[in-house]
Amino acid sequence: MSKFPLHDQNSAPADAKPLLEDSKKVFGMIPSLHAVMAEAPGVLEGYKKLHQLVLDSSFDNDEKTVVWQTINVEHACHYCVPAHTGIAKMMEVSDDITNALRDETALPNDRLEALRTFTLAVVRKRGEVNREDLDAFYSAGYKHRQVLEVVLVVSQKVMSNYINHIAETPVDEPFKKFAWKKNG
């Protein structure tokens, strides 16, 4: 078991306290990921800023969920897949999309499947996508902006997925019902 502390407003470094207070206001609790990140206030602040930038991106809720969960599933993140399952429900993303992402089965439409395929190419090729990857993405109706926004989401998810692996972040109570393990 990891020895990373789960900070609250009493134990967190001073610079992290207002960030945790904000998390509690937004989520009604301090998510375990934020509690871990609070050890390094700049990490928590950076993660929260990236999250807001993703929320403000051109992607709609279905597309955000596709990019987030594609990365979470590819990285086999025990924490983020259940958390983003709950978030998808709050964002009113259909269970068909959520289940296809969690189970790595076909998405309900070609445009979302193209988004997942491109996201996987970016992650697996560490950004060294080829002309075919880009052309397929553009053929689905996406533009240069969305290429860059996929990289933005990858940046956010690398932070959370890697920290969750290292810290063995416990899944928050509201998301335990969405527990997940990678197939195979």
Question: Which tags fit this structure?
Answer:
184 residues; mainly alpha; Single alpha-helices involved in coiled-coils or other helix-helix interfaces; AhpD-like; 9 helices; 0% strand
The overall average pLDDT, rounded, is 97
CATH superfamily grouping of the largest domain: AhpD-like
Main CATH class of the largest domain: Mainly Alpha
Overall domain count: 2
Largest sheet: none
CATH topology of the largest domain: AhpD-like
Portion in helices? 55-70%
Class based on secondary structure composition and strand pairing: mainly alpha
Query: What shape does the CA trace take?
Result: globular
Outline:
The protein is an all-alpha fold and 184 residues long. 62% of the residues lie in helices and 0% in strands.
Describe the structure.
- The chain is globular.
- It folds into 2 domains: about 10-55, AhpD-like (Single alpha-helices involved in coiled-coils or other helix-helix interfaces), CATH 1.20.5; about 60-180, AhpD-like.
- Helix content is about 60%, strand content about 0%.
- The longest helix has 24 residues, at about 145-165.
- With about 180 residues, the chain is mainly alpha-helical.
Per-chain topology:
Blueprint: H1 17-27, H2 32-37, H3 41-55, H4 61-74, H5 80-90, H6 95-103, H7 110-124, H8 131-139, H9 144-167
Helix pairs in contact: 3-9, 4-5, 4-6, 4-7, 4-9, 7-8
